[in-house]
Every structure is written in structure tokens, then in C-alpha cells.
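TA notes, week 10

Several of you asked for a full example with nothing omitted. So below is the full record: C-alpha cells for the whole chain, then the designed sequence directly under it. When grading your own attempts, check the secondary structure regions first.
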């Protein structure tokens, strides 16, 4: 399991024109994430929630303390799949990550949590218990094109997410031919993460 340190997280909805302008500006000041090509990469996640959609509602109302579980992979590459737990405390966020095989991930999506019952990984153990106790189930797939930028001072990460799409057909999470419904067609998401401070040049 990998656990990130607590970081500040800022998110903004922006229009497509601002997206294009910011992308050009960021290219002159920040470094592109080495994992990305000239257009970035595709992020695809399936989110888990309980019967009352607590995680979704907490996010919707901006609850100060909330958590969510998701399975995520990139560019349809099933050789690298993560189970992630995101915890938000006001404007601060932390993330825990554990690796999954595609078979394990598919089993969790289908509600067959026994595949990780004997795992000694702390995050997988926590997810198994909470899935059983709270009735967690895979609820929605979200995918988007991400352009990521880095700035060493302050350990800053700036991402621009566009072409945001979703689907409720969660069992087909790994199907590259799955049709996804466009969301926020006229808007994009800007996210800024940093450790102790945000350098003025980025601000």
C-alpha cells in the first residue's frame, strides 16, 4: 500500500476557452508529467458507494470530512490497476493506493469481495470490511482526458481534465468499446495540488 502525504487540493470548473489559454500558459512555466504524451492520458475510474449514495452526497454538498473508494487505470492499460481511497478534510486531501490484478478488480466491481478477504494489505482489508459493513457497490464509471503539469517548488501538480464522460454499466469497466455519455460538454476541470505552499508563479 502507498499512502500520500496530506496535500492542499483546489478545484475549479472552467470553460473551454480558459482551458486552452491555461494549457498554453502552463506549458511555458511548468513541466509536463513524464507519464503523459503531448495530449496527456485517459483516466478511467469506477466509484463505489453505499445504498444511500453517501459518498456522492457528501461530495455534492461539499462535506468537510469525506472519503471515497475507486478503482482506476490509465489509457486502457490493464497491467497497472489501483484500488484507491481518497480522504478529504476541508481543503486537505490524502490518498491510499493498493495494486490489483484485473481479475481482482473485476470481482470487486461485481461484488465478489471474498477475493481480497485474506489479503494482508491494510487498504484491501479496510475496503473488504467497509464493503461488507456498509454495503459498498460499484456505482458509476467516470473517464476523462487529463493533461498534467508539475512544478518542483511546493510539489505542485496542476491538471486539466476534459472530455468528461460516464456510464452506469459498471461491469464493462474494462471493455474498451464501452460507450460513455459526455458530461460537462462546455466545461473542463482545473485541479491544483500542493504541499505546504503554492508558489506565486503558479498562483
Amino acid at each position: 500500500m502507498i499512502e500520500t502525504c496530506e496535500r492542499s487540493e483546489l478545484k475549479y470548473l472552467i470553460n473551454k476557452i480558459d482551458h486552452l489559454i491555461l494549457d498554453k500558459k502552463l506549458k511555458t512555466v511548468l513541466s509536463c508529467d513524464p507519464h503523459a504524451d503531448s495530449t496527456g492520458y485517459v483516466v478511467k475510474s469506477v466509484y463505489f458507494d453505499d445504498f444511500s449514495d453517501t459518498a456522492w452526497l457528501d461530495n455534492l454538498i461539499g462535506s468537510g470530512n469525506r472519503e471515497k473508494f475507486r478503482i482506476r487505470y490509465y489509457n486502457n492499460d490493464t497491467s497497472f490497476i489501483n484500488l484507491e481511497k481518497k480522504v478529504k478534510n476541508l481543503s486537505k486531501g490524502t490518498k491510499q493506493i493498493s495494486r490489483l490484478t484485473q481479475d481482482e478488480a473485476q470481482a470487486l466491481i461485481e461484488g465478489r469481495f471474498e477475493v481480497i478477504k485474506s489479503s494482508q494489505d491494510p487498504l484491501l482489508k479496510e475496503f473488504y470490511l467497509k464493503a461488507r459493513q456498509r454495503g459498498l457497490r460499484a456505482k458509476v464509471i467516470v473517464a476523462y482526458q487529463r493533461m498534467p503539469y508539475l512544478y518542483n517548488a511546493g510539489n505542485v501538480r496542476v491538471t486539466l481534465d476534459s472530455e468528461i464522460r460516464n456510464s452506469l454499466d459498471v461491469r464493462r469497466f474494462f471493455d474498451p468499446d464501452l460507450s460513455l455519455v459526455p458530461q460537462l460538454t462546455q466545461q473542463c476541470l482545473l485541479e491544483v495540488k500542493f504541499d505546504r505552499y503554492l508558489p506565486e508563479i503558479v498562483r
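The CA atoms of residues 86 and 95 lie 5 Å apart. Use that as a sanity check on your answer.
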